[in-house]
Specification:
13 helices; about 725 residues; 9-stranded antiparallel beta sheet; 3 domains; single chain; Beta-galactosidase, Chain A, domain 5; globular; Immunoglobulin-like; 9-stranded parallel beta sheet; TIM Barrel; binds alpha-D-galactopyranose
Length: about 725
């Protein structure tokens, strides 16, 4: 029984295999948080200290007890208006415009299985997962406002999910000004917050900040989870490392604007919280209406960040990603973008497919430029009609020609967008998010369609089907290349709802596409990695990590991404050198080593390559075929950090320890320099491992102690990479 209620103490306890989470209903019905950490038994009601702290305010019933204040008691769902002056999860206004809310416990229920959220992505459990759901209902009597707190437990993964449903069960309108999904209150501790900031072309490079009495805010108010921050927060003991120290993760299963906060209060206590952004948000609820605060995945590790990431990887890979492609090795693809940009025709694509076939590539993706008058990025988004003059025939004919060569066919679309220069915009100018009387702010010359409107979603869905129904399309790259700035829906009475309703509209279209094309592989993309989150991964099992394909920059990007997302989700390609974005030259082998830590593919013009390079690519692909199941399903270890170490190394180990792949890229080398060692983890202690490529047998314990010395050579050149496939003997 993962979830239990103790009648005597009114403590609700959630156990996973290695962790315990506990809350308690107190004598005035407030829901206090007691504990989240390593597995333990008993009621920890001694944790909150009750002590008169002068200025901290008390609830009315506790006027005589100055040792009781929600300003310092740890809570499950702190709200504005009940005396807690720290950052709240909920702020509401009543019909008179007054702020203020006071929630008290009403009831709780425990169910078998994991809850679902209507219209929103959420972690799912299988019948064998022993999942359970706890629902706790709190109520504000004056407002008639009910909040249902949901806790979904996957014991074997050490994962607890949280979400909240706010219902107006009263008689007057209520406006939700802020709603977040989860918080964790810690009564003491010296913590760092690890967040994943970045920019276009350099997404999710980790940053570690000491948590002090100054709020650390990690957020996006851009309508999407963004390049600049990621909805993944890790709170760690300030001295926690990959293999030691306590750490807690919160990962948002949502793709729109979000806000995460970590702050110490005046008494040295820390609050970590995550949920919807309250910026550009104001959500009215008429009587009977409800609003769902999307899901946060939480996990805890007592032994450092390595295990924390492992828990998240398993959860995302097996309980967020769904469908046909979830456990399948993805086809090796070649994408036309960095090869041709807009400059291609049907013949060129078929030639490209033939060269790709010769080296073993399995799927050709025709990126931007195949539709309407799209010869540059200034026009035609929204008009998803095939440019037959450019392709020299119909899409069906092109697909057939590519299939005849022996490759599957994939295509790029940017379904959420419209160009001013398009038939769609001319016919339905009110379908774009633009503010009447204001010049719209353009991003890449385009506007965003108003997916908060069902009829716009229908049109987008129909246009996608119109393309996919023309022939056997195996893959769709779903792009999104600008932010939402002008927030105005022409039909919404309340513009503060639009950003949230947009995301729900997007999810509804993605769900319909998944239902209708169950074997279609969809890769998410947003100017590279601008919407890399667990919400999108529910619909698209892989996401293009970044438009930056430079192998060295990618080490930082993929390293950061690995904290919350498994290798199977990371779109990664080998591209040409010097790199289009950085101008850097790296060996082809290093580019492949780095791309092999993701879904793997190519993005360059094969015609430009000498025969010898084509032969090398062929070998890379056969190597990839050998290791891909291990990369996709294996347990991932970060062996060093590109931010701190001269060598960036990582490892994937089969769950039973029988096979491991160690990869390393030397980022910094000096003449007559010091030797570099890579120390693997997770091998079977006491066993021996064979490196068949090099004909060496290692003792596992020695390897995990001393490591593998990387070969030293004179005139070694830059950015050498090494891979070691170690098989247990
Ligand atoms: C975005 C994507 C690229 C490519 C272009 C096409 O920038 O991230 O991979 O698809 O759009 O316009």
């Amino acid at each position: 029984m993962p979830i239990t209620f103790d009648e005597h103490s009114k403590a609700l306890t959630i156990h996973t295999n290695h962790t315990t989470y506990q809350m308690q209903v107190d004598d005035i019905g407030c829901l206090l948080h007691l504990y989240y950490g390593r597995r333990t038994e008993g009621v920890m009601d001694y944790v909150p200290s009750r002590f008169d702290r002068g200025t901290s305010a008390s609830p009315y019933e506790k006027a005589a007890d100055r040792g009781y204040s929600l300003d310092f008691l740890p809570q499950e769902f702190p709200v504005q208006g009940a005396g807690d002056m720290r950052s709240p999860l909920l702020v509401v206004r009543d019909a008179e415009g007054a702020f203020g809310c006071d929630l008290r416990y009403v009831r709780h229920e425990i169910h078998a299985g994991k809850y679902e959220l209507e219209g929103l992505p959420a972690v799912y459990a299988g019948a064998d997962d022993d999942a359970e759901t706890l629902s706790v209902t709190l109520r504000d009597e004056r407002l008639g406002l009910e909040v249902e707190l949901l806790y979904g437990v996957l014991p074997h993964l050490d994962v607890i999910c949280r979400a909240a449903v706010v219902r107006n069960a009263g008689k007057a309108r209520i406006v939700v000004e802020k709603i977040q999904s989860a918080c964790l209150d810690f009564v003491h501790g010296d913590f760092s917050l690890i967040s994943f900031p970045g920019r276009h072309g350099m997404e999710r490079v980790p940053e570690r900040t000491a948590v002090r009495q100054l709020s650390c805010v990690v957020d996006s108010a851009k309508g999407s989870s963004s390049h600049q921050q990621n909805p993944l927060l890790i709170l760690a003991d300030s001295d926690a490392t990959e293999t030691a120290g306590r750490c807690w993760a919160m990962e948002f299963v949502y793709s729109g604007s979000f806000k995460g906060e970590a702050a110490r209060d005046q008494y040295g206590q820390t609050r970590l919280q995550l949920g919807l952004s309250d910026e550009l948000f104001s959500y009215p609820l008429e009587p009977g209406a409800q609003l769902v605060a999307p899901e946060v995945i939480m996990t805890y590790s007592a032994v450092g960040l390595d295990l924390l990431s492992h828990n998240l990887h398993r959860c995302v890979r097996e309980h967020v990603c769904r469908g046909y492609w979830r456990d399948r090795v993805r086809p090796v693809l070649i994408n036309s973008w960095e090869a041709f940009y807009f400059d291609f025709d049907g013949d060129r694509l078929v030639e490209f497919a033939k060269l790709a076939k010769r080296v073993g590539i399995e799927l050709l993706v025709v990126d931007d430029g195949w539709f309407a008058d799209r010869h540059d990025d200034k026009r035609s988004l929204g008009d998803w009609t095939v440019n037959e003059a450019k392709l020299g025939g119909t899409l069906a004919q092109l697909i057939a020609a590519v299939n005849d060569v022996g490759l599957q066919f994939g295509i790029w679309m940017e379904p959420e967008m419209v160009s001013e220069e398009s038939e769609l915009y001319r016919a339905h100018p009110d379908w774009a998010l633009v503010i009447p009387g204001k010049q719209p702010v353009l991003g890449r010359n385009q506007l965003v369609l108003d997916l908060s409107r069902p009829e716009v979603c229908d049109n987008v869905f129909d246009q996608i089907c119109g393309v996919l129904d023309q022939g056997p399309v195996s893959y769709l790259k779903w792009d999104y290349n600008r932010l939402i700035i002008d927030i105005y829906s022409h039909v919404a009475a309340d513009q503060g709802k639009v950003l949230y309703d947009y995301v729900k509209g997007l999810y509804s279209v993605l769900e319909r596409v998944n239902e209708r094309y169950p074997e279609l592989l969809i890769e998410g993309c947003a100017g590279g990695g601008g919407r890399f989150d667990a919400g999108m991964l529910y619909y698209t099992p892989q996401i293009w990590c970044s438009d930056n394909t430079d192998a060295i920059d990618r080490l930082y990007i993929q390293y950061g991404t690995s904290f919350g997302y498994p290798c199977s989700t990371m779109g990664a390609h080998v591209s040409a050198c010097p790199n289009e974005m950085s101008g850097r030259v790296t060996p082809l082998s290093t580019r492949a080593t780095v791309a092999e830590a993701g879904t793997f593919g190519y993005e360059l013009d094969l015609k430009e390559l000498p025969e010898e390079t084509m032969d090398k690519i062929q070998l890379q692909i056969s190597w990839h075929k050998r290791i891909a199941p291990l990369v996709q399903q294996g347990r991932y270890h970060r062996l060093s950090s590109p931010l701190a170490d001269p060598v960036c190394a990582w490892e994937q180990v089969r769950e039973d320890g029988s096979l491991a792949l160690v990869s390393a890229v030397v980022m910094e080398d000096h003449a007559y320099g010091t030797p570099h060692f890579v120390v693997p983890r997770g091998l079977t202690s006491g066993a021996r491992y064979r490196d068949a490529e090099r004909g060496v047998v290692y003792d596992a314990d020695a390897l995990m102690e001393v490591g593998i010395p990387l070969p030293m050579t004179m005139k070694a050149g830059s950015y050498r990479s090494f891979t070691y496939l170690l098989e247990r003997v």
